[in-house]
Amino acid sequence: MKRVFLIVLDSFGIGEMDDAASYGDYDVNTLRSCFASSEFHMPNMQRLGLFHIDGVTVGERTGAPIAAVARMTEASRGKDTTIGHWEMAGIYSPNPLPTYPEGFPEEILKRFSEKTGRGVLCNKPYSGTQVIQDYGEEHMRTGDLIVYTSADSVFQIAAHEEVVPVETLYGYCRIAREILQGVHGVGRVIARPFVGKGSGSFARTANRHDFSLVPPGITMLDQLKEAGKAVIAVGKIQDIFVGKGITEYVYTKGNADGIERLLEYMDKDFEGLCFVNLVDYDSLYGHRRDVDGYARALSYFDEKLSRILDKMKPDDILMITADHGCDPGYEQSTDHTREYTPFIMHGDNVKPGNLGTRKTFADIGVTVLQYFGIDAAFSGEGMLK
Fold first, then answer.
1. Matching CATH number, 106-212, of 3.30.70.1250, 3.10.129.10, 2.60.120.260, 3.40.630.10
2. pLDDT in tens, 17-33
3. Residue ranges covered by each domain of the chain
4. Integer Cα distance of 177 and 112 in angstroms
């Protein structure tokens, strides 16, 4: 029974791409920044071959890697979660998703207010943790929704759970998702519920929910499902693909929870793909430029990697990769960073070695389909020998 476990370490880049400067990124390298922290310890990833990947200049290469490794190039125009995951699954995005450094146009907000019956506060790029401190009390007093964005292609709505029940907030997000299409088709509309009694005590809850664009083409998930294989989504994978091509899903409350759900699925019988996103690297540490926190989270994953490897069966393949960079040591912005990503593939049916620098993330999707004997409906090159 063949199973593939594809784990995305969200934002774990390994060095700037050749076109990084066109994205405003200079000398960025998420791995290098984390490696410099005393909190960084990844002996299992080292053994698999992390430091053997093209362009990686930190870490010690201890003998030959026991996994197949590669450096992945993002062919799409962008450096965000949606575009990165879509490309892994076979969708090339020639244009970046829209961003709103000056806030959203008045016509968008007018339509949104008319449909929700609520006013709008903020409407500009803002730190998600700070915006609720600065606008939370006014929101509680007026009932107006806190709408803000970031350097990413997102329309975020923050609301206090006692003022706007979580399910009502999700309904408002669905309204925004219907409005934000075409030229204003942001990658994600995000519900950001929070709690607290006043400014200084407000805190976001785990009830975040993302409402993404529907993938515009056939993905490896669609092809696996069509072939009768299981497609299990752990974490925000369900939201990124809007359920398209997914047969089962579970949401998670952070990296630790995501790893535990993965381990539970490794004890189950199924044939197909278990696709996991571990988001804390990006949301808790990368954007907040917390180098030690990011390094600590990587070390935690590496520690749990021993259990993951121990649970692998003879026909299992483990894949570890990332969707973009978010260098916690980069002080010029708090945005994602345009970086190459790592790819590590391990299992009894995988020949270890360096597979070089790949031209597209889509090689991952082709490789997954290749393992199940399915011809990919999109461009890319399989990596199984």
1. 3.30.70.1250
2. 999 999 999 999 999 99
3. 3-95+214-371, 106-212
4. 10
> 117: which residues sit within 8 A by CB, 6+ positions away?
none
pLDDT given for residue 63 in this prediction: 87
pLDDT at 385: 82
Tokens of 41: 């310890």
Helix axes 362-371 and 81-88, enclosed angle (nearest 10)? 40
How far is the C-alpha of 36 from the C-alpha of 16, rounded, in Å?
Answer: 17
Q: Which two tokens stand for residue 235?
A: 């974490």
- Name the one residue in this structure whose structure tokens are 């290749």: 370
Maximum alpha-carbon separation in the chain: 63
Is the distance from CB of 139 to CB of 162 less than 8 angstroms? no
**Confidence band, pLDDT 50/70/90 cuts, at residue 151:** confident
Selection from 285, 330, 291, 281 nearest residue 26 by Cα: 330
- The CATH code belonging to domain 3-95+214-371 is 3.40.720.10
Residue 4 tokens read as 């593939």
End-to-end CA distance of the chain: give it in Å, rounded: 19
